[in-house]
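PT: before anyone asks, these are the final sequences, not the draft ones from last week. 658 residues across everything. Please model them as a single complex and drop the result in this thread when it's through.
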Amino acid sequence: MKIGILGYGNLGKGVECAVKNNPDTELACVFTRRNPSAVKVLTPGVPVYDAKDILDHKDEIDVLVLCSGSATDLPKQTPEYAKYFNVIDSFDTHARIPEHFANVDKAAKNSKHIALISCGWDPGIFSLLRIYGNCILPDGQDYTFWGPGVSQGHSDAIRRIKGVKDARQYTIPVQSALDAVRAGKNPELTTRQKHTRECWVVAEDGATKEDLDRIEKEIKEMPNYFAGYDTTVHFVSEEELKKNHAGIPHGGFVFRSGKTGWNKEFNNVIEYSLNLDSNPAFTASVLVSFARAIFRMNKEGQTGCRTVFDVAPAYLSPLSGEEIRAHLL
Amino acid sequence: MKIGILGYGNLGKGVECAVKNNPDTELACVFTRRNPSAVKVLTPGVPVYDAKDILDHKDEIDVLVLCSGSATDLPKQTPEYAKYFNVIDSFDTHARIPEHFANVDKAAKNSKHIALISCGWDPGIFSLLRIYGNCILPDGQDYTFWGPGVSQGHSDAIRRIKGVKDARQYTIPVQSALDAVRAGKNPELTTRQKHTRECWVVAEDGATKEDLDRIEKEIKEMPNYFAGYDTTVHFVSEEELKKNHAGIPHGGFVFRSGKTGWNKEFNNVIEYSLNLDSNPAFTASVLVSFARAIFRMNKEGQTGCRTVFDVAPAYLSPLSGEEIRAHLL
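LR: through. Structure below.
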């Protein structure tokens, strides 16, 4: 299976690595909106092309993996490229999924291609855990916790504050909230009650005590991002940030807690968790396994837009039906 | 969707309860090989029929849930009833799955029905976690732990020892083994190194110290079941066993631990666990959600044998595609 990558940032690089780790896949080419000659990929011999020439390479690719941002790029790119390619994206702007799905579905059906949107770990694998949990325990409650891990959006928000040179924000689940859910106590919890926020901040050179106090206050009072959360701010040097906070780890938990029995007398707790050294590398691994799935589904004649809910797990595996029944059932 | 139950033991009762908890399903009837007039079901108005008259009720049932044992019943029943019904079973004799699959597939294809075998939590939900884990992290290791929970087979094995009146055996995961896997240490572990066995035994009245010593020795040395395990034996009164060990709780853990990154420099640990007050009630809930799925797949024209790997998660849910994308993605 020949994979094309559009967008060579952290996620694009992750897809390249995932292709290397999946022997039945091969990287055909990478497309960038930067100057292609300035982009060096890791895989020997793989060409980098200008994104505007992408249609010249239509026949070299089985599935195009879109590695751009959800805010402005993917709403345009996924429906556009579904006209010419089987495509997969990690669109994660929840409120806009119905509209995005409809646009992509229309384009992919017209062109007889297949598309899979909102793939990764959340949305993606966590969504799968939610649907299985809801269907098995219809009378129950869902809990999703994120972290411990680096939130890119929150780190960016801190960097936009005047006087901040660099920053890294960790989202951390509250242990007592995890314990209560795990014990089947079905607590009512807001996102703020489930998570704390820890910030590592590099101030501009020459910052005074007053500057630092103002930065800390601005972080802690920032609406939507930090206000109402238990937030800790640590000021560190640029060297310390680079040394101790260079990685992009992430993870989280999905719980389904529910009742069975004639009088709902039995408690059940389902817990799923991810502990990931690299968020983009894992997301990319999920994308490549679902790329395999949709390529097969398209070969069977399926077209239009799909989500992870529409993919039978057997399609994800390079093994045959006999093999997966023998080794994994 | 009209459900029929064949076999009204713990699992059959569990299916009845799961039907009650799924408003889009309804219990049509129960079939038993016992005297039907001696079997009292919980659902008002639901008839109990003799299993030998099952074909008289062919048109009253959308999916027949087979709640018999894997050892001798299901290998005959599932292919036989797939001639007349959409069927689902929880066949769990791993080595015989290929043969069972082939027999059921042939019968179901000929009759244009659909069948799902080996459904429950292991095989079943745990199998799903294994396939997702293997496909997302192709370079990694699988770990399955069972318990803490009651093992019916091991409890029965103790009851067959001379001088034992009743017994209950708990399988318990070894905490240090769980911790090592969770920490990404990828230990090599046998089933014996992953689990301990705790036995609660009621001796026949008038048992001497010598009898108890012999029973304990026979348990601990029993090949396959206990030999090589860290096994603890507690003698208790019949009342204590009834009071403290009447339930059938179970559960377990599935881990996938694997590497991502260009040089496999990133560790990832995926953990899934179940903590179930009632093993048969949960297994039955899984069966009913997959019964919904195969009924829909059959209405779309699909026939033959399936496993959980072949079912797209969306089929399990009573909600529409729009609803699941809005609420669970």
